[in-house]
Amino acid sequence: MIVLGIETSCDETSAAVVKNGRHVLSNVISSQVDLHQKYGGVVPEIASRKHVELVMPVIRQSLDEAGISLSEIDVVGVTYGPGLVGALLVGLSAAKGLAFAKNKPLVGVHHIEGHIAANYLDHPELEPPFICLVASGGHSHIVYVESYSRFEILGQTRDDAAGEAFDKIARAIGLGYPGGPLIDKWAAGGDCCAMDFPRVRFSDGSLDFSFSGLKTAVLNYLNNQEQKGEKVRTEDICASFQKAVVDVLVENTLKAAKIKKVRNITLAGGVAANSLLRSQLKEKAAAAGYGVFYPRPVLCTDNAAMIACAAYFEYLNGNVSGLELNAIPGLRLGEK
Ligand code: KG4
Ligand code: ZN
Fold first, then answer.
1. Label partner for 255 (CA 20 to 30 A): which of 73, 144, 145, 213?
2. 193 C-alpha vs ligand 2 centroid, how far in Å?
3. How many CA atoms within 13 Å lie on the side-chain side of 299?
4. Is residue 184 within 6 Å of ligand 1 at its C-beta?
5. pLDDT tens, position by position, for the chain (336 residues)?
């Protein structure tokens, strides 16, 4: 079965062709990051306009690279939420048009479900159930993946998403956008114990996260140093901040794995590309006897191959969308 996947929920225009849910034949990603860089974040109106320009050429290129004609596509899968509504609508309209013109089934995919599915692309042996930590610019969720299309959210952020915290701190230090990969790079040369930034743990045993206090602590530290006229070591701030984020992400994920008695833990979303998160989870989870899986970095950040993969499993499960499918910016995982 050949699935064409389309993803336009944020600032990447992407189209991919995936065979039998696990084999990526093409995965074209056109990033708009340069356009948004000078604003320090994604500007929704610019993102939508760029998607309009790029969506059809990107789809064309994904078919060409896969050596597949549009008639050979069996299913069209597309992200319909959550995300920026104007951006989502571009990919959704393109997907609907193609599905209608070629009389192919349309499958609407939840963006986070796509991130989780990226693991199936790189690990053919991986099957649910497992725990997935989904950490991206918009989300920080601990998800119990019961089956290919059943999900239970066990914990989530109460304020900033993990990636958002990385981006805000990078901006405050003047590193640029997106902040995650830059902080990751700078942290490599720093001391992660140089500053003791707070780790929020909820006393009621909740697996939720909160990163706004950590963000404030880093900003306060920067202000204090400036007022005292003392220099800050960017490497140390990055390493200490990164360690504070990763500690709670790993801790809560391991707790979730214990509660649900799973054998495997996976990572997904842009922050899953973080080198410390990968190594810490691998080390601590392996010590506790869990298998650990994460996709290669290009499949962690937004891409359409993960959407095609999720669409494949939804289709096998009988979940086909009608052409009235609309974009839902605040779509929750598990809602159809
Ligand atoms: O999944 P994604 O591409 O888009 C969303 O759905 O949000 O994630 C983007 C986020 C950004 O906040 C970016 O700073 C973060 O992922 N990110 C990282 C790394 N690479 C990307 N955060 C920490 N370390 C990284 N290496
Ligand atoms: Zn994403």
1. 213
2. 30
3. 27
4. yes
5. 999 999 999 989 999 999 999 999 999 999 888 887 778 778 888 889 999 999 999 999 999 999 999 999 999 999 999 999 999 999 999 999 999 999 999 999 999 999 999 999 999 999 999 999 999 988 899 999 999 999 999 999 999 999 999 999 999 999 988 899 999 999 999 999 999 999 999 989 899 999 999 999 999 999 999 999 998 899 999 999 999 999 999 999 999 999 999 999 999 999 999 999 999 999 999 999 999 999 999 999 999 999 999 999 999 999 999 999 999 999 999 766
Q: How far is the CA of 196 from the centre of ligand 1 (A)?
A: 24
Q: Identify the H or E element spanning 29.
A: strand 23-31
The minimum-distance atom of ligand 1 relative to the CA of 164 is 12
Q: How far is CA 300 from the centre of its chain?
A: 6
Strands 150-156 and 140-147: antiparallel
**Gap from CA of 136 to ligand 1 centroid (Å):** 5
> Cα–Cα–Cα angle for 178, 278, 240, nearest 5°?
65
